[in-house]
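subagent[fold] <- orchestrator: predict structure for attached chain, return C-alpha cells only, no commentary.
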Amino acid sequence: MPFAQASSLEAWKALEQHHTTAGRHIRLNEEFQKDSQRFEKLSRTFYNEADKSETLFDFSKNLVTDETVSLLVNLAREAGVEELREQMFKGEPINFTENRAVYHVALRNVSNQPMQVGGKSVVEDVNSVLEHMKQFSEQVRSGEWKGYTGKKIKTIINIGIGGSDLGPVMVTEALKAYADRSFDIHFVSNIDGTHIVEALRNSDPETTLFLIASKTFTTAETTTNANTAKDWFLKTAKDEAHIAKHFVALSTNEQEVTKFGIDKKNMFGFESWVGGRYSVWSAIGLSVALYIGFDNFHQFLAGAHAMDKHFRETPLEQNIPVLGGLLSVWYSNFFGAQTHLVSPFDQYLHRFPAYLQQLSMESNGKAVTRNGEHTKYTTGAILFGEPATNAQHSFYQLLHQGTKLIPTDFILAAESHNPVEGGKHQRMLASNFLAQAEALMVGKSPEQVKAEGAPDELIAHKTFLGNRPTTSILAQKITRLLWAP
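subagent[fold] -> orchestrator:
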C-alpha cells in the first residue's frame, strides 16, 4: 500500500480544523461538568482472558472530546493502521528496510494458532526453544545443573545491551515477587569496566552462570564484557572445558558462539524477525525464566498473548494501544508537546520507564516516512519516567507549574504484594495516584490561593493552571499475567 505523508491525509486536515475550533479550547473541568458520563465514555477496560483480571485505562482526563477520538480513529484508518496490523500478524515483511517480518507476537502464541513467515510455520521452532528454556531453567533451579566443582549455581549474570538487557532487567524487577531469592542476579550492559567488576566482585566462579545475550554475538560491548567474564572465570577454573558448565549463549551465531568456547547445546536461538526491544519474550528472556521459574515465564507469555489478541481483534475505537498511540500523535503534533512521562506508583515497576524509552523512542525515532521522505510532522515524543512518589519530590512541580505541556501516564496496582502496616503504605500510594491526576486537571486558582491566606506577593507562585492531561492505568495487581507492550 502507498504511504503518504500523514499530514497530507484528509483526516489530518480535519484534526487541524478541530484543534483550531475546539481542541485547543478544551477545559477538562468544564468537560466533566457538561457530561456526567465522560468517565464512562472515555475509559476502556482490558479483560485479560488468561487470568480473568481487569485493567482500567482512564483516558477521560485527556484533552479530547468524543469528536476528537472519532477524528483520531479516522486518521488511524486512513493511514492504514488496520491493514498494517493484519500484515504484522500474518508475518509479512513490514520491516521493509531489512525485508523482515515483525513477528514478536509469535513468541507469545501460547494458544498455538497457526503462524507463518514466508509460507513456513514458526510455531514448532518457537515451541522447541521454549522447551529448551524450560528444561535448562528447571535443571539450574533444582540444582541438577552443577558448576565444574559440583556445586549448585547461585549467581546469574546476564551480559547484553539494548533489548538484550532492558527487557530482562525490567521484567525481573517487575516480577521479583515471584523470584527464587536464593539466586543473586546481575545484568551487565555498559562498556564501562565498573559494571562488570561490580557484578563479579562478590561472585564465586564455582557457582556463577553467565548468559551471553547477543543475536549476532558480535556486539562490541557484549563481547568485551563476555571476554572479561571468561578471563575472570578461567583464572580460577583453569580449564576451558569448564566453560560449558558456566556460560550459555542467547544468540543465532553458532560459529562465534563455539569460537568463544560455549557448547552449541547450550545455545538458545531466536529468529531474525525478533526485534531487540521485543526480545524478552524470546530466548533473551532466559534470565527471567531462571529467576522466576519457567511456569511463571510461560504465564508472562500468556499475558502478552492476551493483549496481542485485544490489539488484533478490538475495533480501533475501543483498542487500548491504538488509543494510546493516537493520543501521542494528538499532543505531539497539535499541542506541541515534546515529552511524555510514565510514572508508575509501584516500586517493582521502577525500570519500566527505561524499558519503554527504547520501545518507543527506538521505534519512533526517525524523521523519514516509509517512502524515504522527510516527515512534515512530529514523530515520537521524548519519553521519560520515574516511580512515584519519588518523582513527586523531584520533578512534578514542572508538571503542575511549568511552561511545558507534558502528557502523563500514571500506573497503580490496587493490590500490593507487600501490604505492610495493614495496607497503610498502599492506601497512601493510591491516595497520591488519585490526587495527582486530579490536581493536574483541576489546578488551583489565584482566588483559592488567596482564600488559603497566602500573602499577595506569593499568590502567583502558589497558583496551578491545571488542565494538564493524564491517563490513569489501574491494574488489580502486578502479576506475571499482566498486559504487555
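orchestrator: received. Logging for downstream: The chain has two domains: 6-99+305-477, 116-292. The chain has a mean pLDDT of 96.
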